[in-house]
Amino acid sequence: MKTVIPIGPFHPLQEEPELFSLTLDGETVTDVDVRLGYNHRGIEKIAETKTWDQDTFLIERICGICSTSHPIAYCNAVEDCAGIEIPERAKYIRSIVGELERLHSHLLWLGLAGHFIGYNTLFMWGWKWREPILDLFEQITGNRNHYAMIKIGGARRDIKNEDIPSIRKCLSGLVPPLEMITKAALDDPVLHARLKGVGILKKEDAIKYCAVGPTARASGVAIDVRKDEPHAAYGMVKWNVITQEAGDVFAKAVVRLLECFESVKIVQQCVDGLEKTKGAEFCKEVENIPPGEGIGHYEAPRGETFHYVRSDGANRPVRHKIRAPTYVNLPSFKASCIGQTISDVAITLASIDPCYCCTERVAVIDPKTRAKKHITGEELVRLSQEKTRKIRDGLLKGSI
Amino acid sequence: MNLKTWGLKKSIWVFHVSSGACNNCDIEVLDCLTPRFDIERFGMVLVGSVRHADVLLCCGSITKQAAPRIKRLYEQAAKPCFVVAIGGCACSGCIFKDSYNFAGPYDKIIPVHAYIPGCPPKPEAILAGAVKLLSTLK
């Protein structure tokens, strides 16, 4: 007998509102579907009404956890459009803030993963060791989250030399607990029993579903924007891309934990760079953005985030498009969840470190049949032509 | 103070509602539960069902799709139920107030008893807000 189990939209398992419909045959999941739109705030449209500089603050508020990844990708896109090369010191600052964010995000995921499988000790540990990083953020940027450090042309504010010893102290203080938590988590028989062989995403499936970030790297696909297309300071420092072959939830945890050590390495080298470029310029004056289009991407903690902007030479973007990592990773549930038991699906859904506030799109639902509406490319063209016609008619009649 | 309020003040059960948030206030709410801030020393426990909740911790601007659900969620909660709006978006709509999908800040949809502004408010601020709410109960 087939049963449909809804998870959401307001469910204790999830922090954000979204609805997963699991179709079950007995205990086994035979299909999984997601309905989004509860969190859709229309950021792409708001971005068109604000100036280039105001947009960096708006884009930061796409997501609270990747709140530096999105602005970096956006600024990369605008700088690509305007042909701006940022100063060396700004590159180090961007990498430092980006990597500290990855550290706190991965610890956050580890804690939440523990919470989801009912292992609250891991939750408390992970979040306890995340606090010093947030304190450091508060010291160097002025806020625990939403750092507002990125600006078109460089960084909004400098990292002061007086803050450098505390960055080093925080990092050296973080390594022993990280090692402890890594060993504890990876040697734990409970975690082995609960996570190994669960939610396997095979390498060919990861490629087929275009998975990105730790989700792909845990399946043996060495894809990382920081290595593939180095920007900020990633080309100037030494670090490794972490991959695992198994593709299960355990491998994803291993990838994230080992990435933390790489992030520590990157920040340490970037801090050396900061000391070398002491007193140098950290932001270029940007007068205006010429007409054209630009793309920018950045390896957010969850995978590649991609931004596209189009300028007509005015003080605001004509079009701004965002493609967040979770949006790309969501379809991989079709490969990893189907065939699992319902108790394993909860952690498999959490294993991609989903972030729905980045992902949100509008879904048009017919209330009678409860079916989703799919819009094809031709229909989109027709809709936009109709809208242009409406605006033109309105202009002629003088009603707009 | 009657017996019911006295009991309520000793152990407040909170439920976390998020609607169109950027996740940051949600994370800070969860942060209150973890060892550094430890909201449980005030007798507060995060519960999984709104039917068990005394306080709704609400984050984020309300989107059009979430608005009817939030209303239903509030109706399902056993009364007295207090609503705390956490963060700039929940209090006023903040940067998202001009969005086409914005249905209003929380006080347009359900009654709100306490506002904690900030983007995001620090866990200390959330604790202070919760304690202030407790002190108004008579």
From TrEMBL, chain A:
Residues binding Mg(2+): 44, 322
Domain NADH-quinone oxidoreductase subunit D: 117-361
Gene3D superfamilies membership: Cytochrome-c3 Hydrogenase, chain B (1.10.645.10)
Cofactor needs: Fe cation; Ni(2+)
Pfam families xrefs: Complex1_49kDa (PF00346), NiFeSe_Hases (PF00374)
InterPro entries, per database record: ComplexI_49kDa-like (IPR052197), NADH_Q_OxRdtase_suD (IPR001135), Ni-dep_hyd_lsu (IPR001501), Ni-dep_hyd_lsu_Ni_BS (IPR018194), NiFe-Hase_large (IPR029014)
Keywords, alphabetical: Iron, Magnesium, Metal-binding, Nickel, Oxidoreductase, Ubiquinone
MF terms (GO), sorted A to Z: ferredoxin hydrogenase activity; NAD binding; nickel cation binding; oxidoreductase activity, acting on NAD(P)H; quinone binding
Designated name of the protein: NADH:ubiquinone oxidoreductase
Species this protein is from: Candidatus Desantisbacteria bacterium CG_4_10_14_0_8_um_filter_48_22
UniProtKB/TrEMBL annotation, chain B:
Keyword 4Fe-4S: yes
InterPro entries the UniProt entry points to: Complex_I_20kDa-like (IPR052375), NADH_UbQ_OxRdtase-like_20kDa (IPR006137)
Record's keyword terms, sorted: 4Fe-4S, Iron, Iron-sulfur, Metal-binding, Ubiquinone
Boundaries of every NADH:ubiquinone oxidoreductase-like 20kDa subunit domain copy: 22-132
Domain of life, per lineage: Bacteria
Cofactor: [4Fe-4S] cluster
Annotated GO MF terms: 4 iron, 4 sulfur cluster binding; metal ion binding
SUPFAM superfamilies named among the record's database cross-references: HydA/Nqo6-like
Family of the protein in this entry: Belongs to the complex I 20 kDa subunit family.
Name by which UniProt lists this protein: NADH:ubiquinone oxidoreductase
Lineage, top ranks: Bacteria, Candidatus Desantisiibacteriota
